[in-house]
Amino acid sequence: MNDELEYRAVLAVDIERSAGRGDRALLEIRARLTEMLEEAFEASGVDWSACLRHDLGDGLRVTAPAGTRKAALVHPLVPELALRLRTYNRGAAPLTRIRVRIALHAGDVHVSPDGTVAGSPLEVLARLLDAPPARAALAGAPETVPASLLLSGHFYDETVRHGHLGLFPEDFRKVGFTVKEHTADAWLQLPGRQPPAEAAPEPAEAQEEPAGSKTAGSKTAGSETAGSKTAGSKMVNKASGHGVVYATQHGTQHIRIERKH
Questions:
Q1: 165: pLDDT confidence band, cut at 50, 70 and 90?
Q2: Sign of the dihedral defined by the CA atoms of residues 119, 125, 130, 133, in that order
Q3: Which pLDDT belongs to residue 4?
Q4: What pLDDT score does 205 carry?
Q5: What is the tens place of the pLDDT at every residue in 77-91?
Q6: Phi then psi for 46, rounded to 5 degrees?
Q7: Of 2-11, 191-200, 241-250, where does mean pLDDT reach its minimum?
């Protein structure tokens, strides 16, 4: 084995619920996934032919070329892959639809002349790929979400945390997990899934007082606040010492500026 260590980024994908589909379906989805991965790598500027690829049975492990910019493996590679998966799934039969878990890590590995890669970073990558939070997130996501992405803490700190172009730290959430002997924190994202929009606060309703009633205001230094009174369909609010706000029951608002001479 080559005793020289090389710092490499490593990526792995695993097909969700691949078991029980039969050999023909599995061969089909493996071939299509490989094609889409190659397209996503090339679209990200990473030479697919220079990558070292290893079959995982129902997935694939890819060791990127030395010197690969790690951020490119998150963006645009992951969105590119998610887009292709979602487009493919629209026309695929149920048995050949593909959803995947994606894991990313980086570290010093041994690379043999025959292309064999070994080292502890690959063990960490395998644990990330099998992490329960990533499995649960994808299983609980709508079918239109084609992937989950889990980054090691090391990978996240060196790429996403800095918010480089296309990378948004707020799109990830920190999760803890234990798989076999490995316990760690990692960063999870569901590519293509937008977080739910926060509900806008409901506007406060103006409370009208019976006709003829009057509420005395209070004074503070430099300003004056008077109460409100209603007459018929018009409510008059004196908001400050500089103007009068008129509001009707039909929602029309008028503001008149009072100038002191």
A1: confident
A2: positive
A3: 79
A4: 47
A5: 999 999 999 999 999
A6: -105, 125
A7: 241-250
- State the pairing for strand pair 52-55/59-63: antiparallel
Higher pLDDT, 205 or 133: 133
Q: 59 by DSSP, 3-state: which?
A: strand
Contact at 8 Å (CB) between 32 and 95? no
| Cα–Cα distances in angstroms (integers) from residue 257 to residues 22, 213, 238, 248, in the given order | 78, 24, 11, 18
Q: Give the count of beta carbons closer than 10 Å to the beta carbon of residue 41.
A: 24
3-state SS assignment for residue 110: strand
DSSP letter, residue 94: G
Q: Cβ–Cβ contacts within 10 Å for residue 243, how many?
A: 12
- For residue 101, give the amino acid letter: R
The answer, yes or no, to whether residue 258 has pLDDT greater than 70, is no
CA neighbor of 132 nearest in space, from 179, 99, 98, 174: 179
Paired tokens of 196: 């739910």
Q: Residue 40: exposed, middle, or buried by beta-carbon count in 10 A (0-12, 13-18, 19+)?
A: buried
For the chain, the average pLDDT equals 82
Distance CA(52)–CA(64), nearest Å, equals: 7
The answer to whether 156 and 187 are in contact (CB under 8 A) is yes
Considering the entire predicted model, what is its pTM?
Answer: 0.74
Pick from 33, 135, 16: nearest CA to 84: 33
Contact 193, 141 (CB under 8 A): yes
3-state secondary structure of 44: coil
Measured between alpha carbons, how far is 132 from 260 in angstroms, rounded to an integer? 70
Helix (H, G, I), strand (E, B) or coil at 205: coil
Q: Determine the Cα–Cα distance for residues 145 and 142; give it in Å rounded to an integer.
A: 6
